[in-house]
Amino acid sequence: MEFTKITNKRMNEEYYRMKHRSGLEIIVYPKKGFNSTYASIGTKFGSVYSKFMFNGREVTVPDGTAHYLEHKLFESEDGDAFSKYAKVGASANAFTSFDMTCYLFSCTDNFRESLEILLDLVQSPYFTDETVAKEQGIISQEIKMYDDSPDWRVMMNLLTGLYHNHPINKDIAGSVETIAKITPQILYECYNSYYNLNNMVLAVVGAADPYEVLKIADEKLKTCERVDTRVIFPDEPYKTVKSYTEQILPVGVPQFELGFKENSTDKYATNKELICTSIMLSAFVGTGSELYRRLLDEKLINSSFGNEYLEGLGYRSVIFSGESADPKAAAEMICDAVGKLHKNGISHEDFDNARKSVYGIFASGFDRKQSIASELINGHFTGREIFEPAEIIANVTLNDINERLEHQLDVDNCCLSVIKSE
Amino acid sequence: MSEFVQRKICEGVTFGSITDDRFKIGRLSATLLVPLSRQTAAANALLACVLTRSCKKYPDFTSLSRKLDSLYGASLYPSVRQMGDCQALTIAVSGLDDNYTLNKEAVSAELADLLSSIIFEPNVNDGLFSEEDIEQERRQLIESIDSEYNDKRYYAIKRCIENMCSEELYSIGRFGSREEVEALTNADVYSAWKRLLSQARVELTMLGSASTEKAYEGFVKYFGDKPRTTEKPEHTDVVPEKVKYVSEDQELSQSKLVMGFRCNYDNDDRAALENSLMSAVLGGTPTSKLFLNVREKQSLCYYCVSRVDNNKGVLLIDSGVETENIEKTKNAVLEQLELLKKGDISDEELVNAKLAVKNSLMSSLDSLAALQDYYIGGVLRKNQLTPAKAAELTDGISKERIIELANKVQLDTVFTLKGN
Q1: Across A161-250, where does the E strand assignment appear?
Q2: Which homologous superfamily is B5-223 in?
Q3: For tag attachment on chain A, is the N or C end more exposed, with fewer CB atoms within 10 Å?
Q4: H or E element: which one contains A17?
């Protein structure tokens, strides 16, 4: 087995990847002169994978199962992974998102031991009634913490306002009620369906040598037979569920998210699509834009204002978010500006500045191990190579941006989510 | 990567730099430090915001932002924080290294110039800032203060400190109060600028691959010939006589418990390191006493964390719990602290905490942002250690020392934010 080396001259960076005989995709990204190493193993199983076909059978799991499984995988029959990591001095964590679950550590010493713990962790599930029950209290408090977080609520309410059927409209951690239904059997079923090495990727970034990683993988990984697992997403209409949603919470300043829903597709966005969207958004509403200035002048936003493109299988939306004394007026001004944007497109000067800005921000990601690992894992699952954006940004034209814009920001298909106090 | 090299520009002004070619983003910062004071905290905070909004050369927000975009999305932002009884205003710029620009444009020299312009050549006419800049930034600063209430964990910690240290400068807060910000005049902000330039202690940092000479010379020119008188606040040890209990109600799903303790204060970096290790043993890691007993054994919470402010001698433990479990959690925390005080600490617990502290120190060497934070965060202490030296010294800290420091931890205030 050999690694393929991928290099990029513009960024002066390189990494190595291979499909390991066990089924696992292994990516090693050495950072010259680094003391520390960050490793993350991800499975393509997140909160939206709540209904799937496994060996010809349809399985539906309670909301919050992927996240619950993440918590419980830290325990195995011979103890919990946190204490194993602690003995070798690595700092460990895990997270569950809408479309993946990742387990990670960062270390400056004892890399071999730390990686062994990580590879063991994902290969030794151990769920009993007792251990599963013990987690209810902890995760219930995690859920309640999020219930009180306006940042989180404003986004989840938006997704509920945008999506009729797609499980992106469900909280990642589920609810106190749904997690009460989770049993060891359900966790094992999800584990067997999705924690198959053929469905997973390991990214190691920092003071790492590809062949050292391979050696440890050879010793630790048990070959996995491919399993027949396929996620099922319900049909999602183009139209949003509603155009406005609000929740009362004790806040000092109202918070809002304004989301523009796009056509759902069963494909991930390409690097080119993502870059065009980033450049368009930077030109349209970045801090140097006319719109940003007008929103400030009218006292409708502050420096918390931002935007993102949320996309995955079956969902794509542009989201503007921030704090505002008057979210409705802010949304109205943005929608008006979107109308003009579609009519006039982006100007040459705005395009040029935005392109440079997006390039600088893209390059800055290569300074952070964690961000590289997360791009590598995400890139593997979505089929997006992580250096490709450098070339795309260098060569993209204004025409590309304006063409892409035609499929985005439909003012007749948006929803405003607001959190305010009584 | 070079060591952190510090050069004195003049009395009270230091330029610290690291030359390192591993990164694509270079960083520059200027931190102005003054004792916290009711009279000036709000004006200083607003000044930091106004300065980063425009300058003589780019006289309004949009022209300055567009300039930053054209410099490959360079960032320029103020951060106002409280470090012990001091207020620290940091203006930081960062941007793409010249080697990585698309057409080999020189970004780094422009960034150094920009930082000087921001501090020394603001958009001032006849002794006043632009009225528009003042009003815009005042509104946004007030919204920042109001929105501290949105984040319940942050809010509860802030309220605990306000109650615990009500008689001390520490309770003033990084921005001063909403009312103080509202009452500021343009002239107040202008005076704050003049005062800070002649009285603040100034720490400049430059990290990255760019040559530091030109930036250094630039700062010498600006600061060099001006006489300065810097002040620093006196630390007074506070011994809690009786525990204060303060509670507020809000419509929330989860209650927040914040316990404020007095702990050892020693203005020396090594003592700070020892105190941080004690806090790590108690509640700083996933194998700490609080994590293992309050979260894992009793399933009372998702987080129960201890952190120490070595610039003040305050240790805070906070958790999010069911309202009916507040008392139980508080007792569980105190029980763990009591065990530590009595010396119930295994070799393994100590070694694990040391490894965690060392890992975090050594990892900071791989991030210029982390190094910048590390050096700025320690400027108030004597004998500042490099992260590598601090990691090395961590090994030698004895169990007895941890127990001794734990015994200096005294409960002062319990703040609860009660949900439903």
Answers
A1: 200-206, 229-231, 244-248
A2: Metalloenzyme, LuxS/M16 peptidase-like (3.30.830.10)
A3: C
A4: strand A13-19
* Residue B356 contacts residue A89 (beta carbons within 8 Å): yes
pLDDT, tens digit, 9 for 90 and up, residues B295-311: 989 999 999 999 999 99
Residues A89 and A207 in one domain: yes
Query: Is the same domain home to A56 and A135?
Result: yes
Query: How many domains, in total, are found in chain A?
Result: 2
Which residues on chain B are in Cβ contact (under 8 Å) with A136? Answer: 299
Partner residue opposite B102 with nearest CB, options A145, A325, A359: A359
Q: Which of B253, B358, B359 sits opposite A147 (nearest CB)?
A: B253
Q: For B244-418, which CATH superfamily applies?
A: Metalloenzyme, LuxS/M16 peptidase-like (3.30.830.10)
Mean pLDDT of chain A: 96
Give residue limits of the domains in chain B: 5-223, 244-418
Closest residue, chain B, to A360 (C-alpha): B72
Domain assignment present for residue A19? The answer is: yes
d(CA B406, CA B352): 17
Distances (CA, A) of A48 to A45, A62, A314: 8, 11, 10
Single-letter code of the amino acid located at B383:
N
Same structural domain, A201 and A337: no
Reported as a single tens digit per residue, the pLDDT across A349-395 is: 999 999 999 999 999 999 999 999 999 999 999 999 999 999 999 99
Q: Report whether B332 contacts B365 (CB < 8 A).
A: no
Does the beta-carbon distance from B152 to A83 stay under 8 Å?
A: no
Q: Contact at 8 Å (CB) between B370 and B363? A: yes
CA distance A49 to A386: 25
Give the pLDDT score at A264.
84
Cβ of A148 within 8 Å of Cβ of B254? The answer is yes
Rounded distance between C-alpha atoms, residue A257 and residue B97, angstroms: 34
- The confidence score (pLDDT) of residue B228 equals 82
Cα–Cα separations (whole angstroms), residue B12 to A114, A186, A243, B35, B198: 45, 64, 57, 14, 10
Q: Is B293 helix (H, G, I), strand (E, B) or coil?
A: helix
State yes or no: pLDDT of B224 exceeds 90.
no
Quick check: do B5-223 and B244-418 share a fold?
A: yes
Residue A237 is assigned to a structural domain of this protein: no
| Integer Cα distance of A298 and A77 in angstroms | 60
ipTM of the complex: 0.94
Residues of B in Cβ contact (< 8 Å) with A253: 143, 146-147, 150
Domain assignment present for residue A415? The answer is yes
Residues of chain A contacting B140 with CB distance shorter than 8 Å = 302-303
Are the beta carbons of A141 and B321 separated by less than 8 Å? yes
Whole-angstrom CA distances from A42 to A108, A269, B184, B200 are 21, 20, 52, 49
In sequence order, what are the residues at sequence separation of 6 or more whose Cβ sits closer than 8 angstroms to the Cβ of residue A263?
Answer: A238, A316, A407
- Best CA proximity match to A41, nearest among A84, A90, A102: A102
Instruction: Tell me the residue range of the domain where A404 lies.
Output: 244-420
Q: B322 in helix, strand or coil?
A: coil
Maximum Cα–Cα distance across chain A = 64
Whether B72 and A360 lie within 8 Å, measured CB to CB: yes
On whether residue A340 sits in a domain, the answer given is: yes
CATH number at residue A96: 3.30.830.10
Q: Is A236 a known active-site residue?
A: no
What's the rounded Cα separation, in Å, for the pair A85 and A96? 20
Q: What is the model's pTM?
A: 0.96
Say if residue A198 is in the same domain as residue A138: yes
- Residue B8, H or E segment: strand B5-10
Number of Cβ within a 10 Å radius of residue B328: 14
In b/e form, how buried is each residue of B169-192, taking b as 16+ CB within 10 angstroms? Answer: bbbbbbbbebebbeebebebbbeb
